[in-house]
Write a structure and sequence with these properties.
Helix content is 27%, strand content 22%. It has 2 domains: 176 residues, Enolpyruvate transferase domain (UDP-n-acetylglucosamine1-carboxyvinyl-transferase, Chain, Alpha-beta prism); 186 residues, Alpha-beta prism (UDP-n-acetylglucosamine1-carboxyvinyl-transferase, Chain). The chain contains 11 helices and 19 strands. The chain has 389 residues and is α+β, with helices and mostly antiparallel strands.
Length: 389
């Protein structure tokens, strides 16, 4: 994301030691009005960039790795077209997927409809672009909205940057934003990544140990903090509190022994984490409401089941999720499919089962470059990286 905006002429200073970004605004129009933007396998980046750039003037081509060319973006294209955008897929084999060619000339606004059952990122992208439309906007959500906490987080961030949104109910939810308007600059503190924290809470649930993650409370913007409540249903203990300097923390301890039946539509990024925990429970776990997980970095239902079976476990695939049956596991080579969450989740299994080898561990660099070092520091067994064969 940073590379894309820099290529379009924005000044972004990134102090990685301090975890701090300083961004010089461009008043809604990047200095460079054309470019080929490569986003690797970041679905968030390509969807948010497509919506944001549609509100500008210029000509852009957005593309990524081969897997990105299988990930859906058609609903976002149709939603932006309802606002007058000129954009289309350049993918003959998968016309609902990238690459996307955008001939941007601003957005008219008005009413647009977007599906909610594939990815909440379509809605979030349109919401963030909406203030730069030429007239007031209404976005209607068609069908069930998955990962709704991410949309709530989007609206909260927008409000902190000076843009408010009203929501109307009824048979079809609509989001309404006054336009045109502009965001205002501010200093913004980003919460620690709750999705990344889930692996450490899960480590406690698998081993019966105790892990405290600082900087996150149950009132965090991110829905994935709710993962600790899932572990609590399975038998772990969850305690919250604040440090002397006022920083919240969440602590998980004790084994998660009970299998559960649960919808994870709102926290679908933690399905793989739960799968690792469920493998060590005493009864089956049924996960529902996550059919959209098939369209992530990999098929996070089918490929997840493949690796569970490779370990000697048993899992059943359903249209909206899967059921995991605890079995005696064996060491093996674990494929990660270039998916950071596959690697981090199955590292928890490897932590417990001798002879496990997590392939392509560096795919975690997408969101957590030092994950294996931090996990090794916690369990007292530093990772051993083997040369790729």
């Amino acid at each position: 994301m940073v590379d894309a905006w820099r290529k379009l002429g924005l000044r972004i200073d990134w102090d990685q030691d301090r975890c701090e970004l300083t961004i010089e605004g461009c008043a809604g129009q990047p200095p460079v009005q054309h470019g080929d933007l490569f986003v690797a396998n970041s679905g968030t980046s390509i969807r948010f960039l497509t919506a944001a750039l549609a509100a500008t003037h210029g000509r852009y081509l957005l593309d990524g790795v081969p897997r990105m060319r299988q990930r859906p973006i058609g609903d976002l294209i149709r939603g932006l077209r309802a606002w007058g955008a000129s954009l289309k897929s350049q993918n003959d084999d998968h016309p609902e997927c990238p690459p996307v060619l955008l001939d941007a000339r601003g957005l008219a606004g008005g009413l647009a409809t977007v599906r909610g059952d594939v990815s909440s990122q379509f809605l979030s992208g349109m919401l963030m672009a909406a203030p730069y439309c030429r007239q007031d906007v209404q976005i209607a959500v068609e069908g069930q909205l998955v990962s709704k906490p991410y949309v709530d987080m989007t609206l909260s961030v927008m409000k902190d940057f000076g843009v408010s949104c009203t929501t109307t109910g009824g048979s079809q939810v609509q989001y309404c934003i006054d336009a045109p308007t502009a965001y205002r600059a501010c200093h913004y503190s980003i919460e620690p990544d709750a999705s990344a924290a889930s692996y450490f809470w899960a480590a406690a649930a698998i081993t019966g140990g105790r892990v405290r993650v600082e900087g996150l409370g149950l009132d965090a913007l991110q829905g994935d903090v709710g993962f600790v409540k899932v572990l609590e249903q399975m038998g772990s203990q969850v305690v919250t509190g604040c440090s002397q300097d006022g920083q919240p923390w969440i602590e998980v301890s004790g084994r998660a022994q009970r299998g559960i039946d649960i919808s994870m539509s709102d926290i679908s990024d933690t399905v793989q984490t739960l799968a690792a925990v469920a493998l060590f429970a005493n009864s089956p776990t049924r996960v529902r409401g996550v059919a959209h997980n098939r369209h992530k970095e990999t098929d996070r239902i089918g490929d997840l089941i493949t690796e569970i079976r490779r370990l000697g476990g048993e899992a059943q695939e359903h249209e909206d999720g899967l059921t995991i049956y605890p079995r005696k596991l064996r060491g093996c080579e674990i494929e990660t499919y270039r998916d950071h969450r596959m690697a981090m989740s199955f590292s928890l299994v490897a932590m417990m089962i001798p002879g496990c080898l997590v392939l392509d561990p560096r795919c975690t660099e997408k969101t957590y470059p030092n994950y294996f070092e931090d996990l090794g520091r916690m369990i007292g067994r530093p990772p051993e990286y083997l040369r790729a064969r």
